[in-house]
Model the fold of this input.
Amino acid sequence: MKKVIVLLAAVLASFLLLTACKINTDKSDNKSFKYQYGVFLSVEDDLDSLNSYKTVVIDAQNFRAVEINKFRDEGHKVFSYINIGSLENFRDYYDEYADLALEAYEHWEEEVWIDVSDVKWQQFVVNELIPSLIEKGIDGFFVDNCDVYYNYTTPEIMNGLTVMMNAMVDTGLEVIINGGDCYLDAYCAAGGSWDDVITGINQETVFSKINWEDDSFGRADAEDHLYFKDYIERYDALGADIYLLEYTTDEKLIKEINRYCVQKGFYYYISDSIELV
Done:
């Protein structure tokens, strides 16, 4: 059962402006960290800037193994971003798989949804991309865009995602799915076990909302808020690790997120930028 230490008011005041996280006791080392979780996908060359965080999500493709291992030796835990449901035009393998594009990815001009049912893509992810990230010395995967199943709800898309998710779990490393609620629920409804494909869930915008028309932030719509709370709490009850990623600078909302996550024992990170710098 997860242990949660109640945050002192003085500590809360010091970090509520931008970032917050569950504080717990880590018996693996004696080093304490100001924050327990942060997501920094746009950080490319300075892991030392993240020294205040116990667990970080980075794009390990931007770092050398020696840099990541040095950071881990200092007591940090490192998850690497891995995008299996869409293809970004800045990756060095973009041209090789661009023919598998399904359609443009709304709000993200540099990405296209990719046909995960294609064996060529599955083999690349399983035999090349996953091993290359493991060689960097990471502790686990932060898996993005399983939401391709939301757009293409077919058995072939589900099976393609499952091949890649199974492969990550089989490495013995942690596997956090970012969102992916439609895929995960459908996989389990079809008779699969959640822990065959993930060890945890990172859910964005449970409390907050991104207003894409002007890149501002707001409060999540009530229906979405209740839906995502139900989603993460169901899998928490089954034993999955739960992480929240929120976007806001509203101090009242930050306090609300903090209270909820401390009560539930969830990790969380609050960003003031969708670029996650």
